[in-house]
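User: My instructor asked us to take a sequence, write out its structure as tokens, and then describe one feature of it. I'm not sure where to start. Here is the sequence I was given:
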Amino acid sequence: MGQTAEVKRDRMHLRLDAKTKRKLERAAAYEETSVTDFVLASAVAAAEHVIDSHEKITLSAKDWEVFYDALINPPEPNEKLREAARRYRERVGG
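Assistant: Let's start with the prediction itself. The structure tokens for your sequence are:
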């Protein structure tokens, strides 16, 4: 016998004015969905956009080439970098 997975759903309560509520209800009706599903989908899409804008970096083709080349052919460490690595090793005990 198959068991159905029980999905726990958290609740979130919002306070909004009547005009905003009507607007959300109207938009949900156009999308043929519930207000809850409309608000949730819209909020998740907005959250993904904000997260992406803070956690992803988009490079131009030229910048990607420079970055890729630096990964494949890293330059020799200069004196400042060697000194920074030495200080780091001292601090962390490595």
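For the description part of your assignment, you could build on this observation: The chain has two domains: 17-56, 58-94. Try explaining in your own words what that tells you about the chain.
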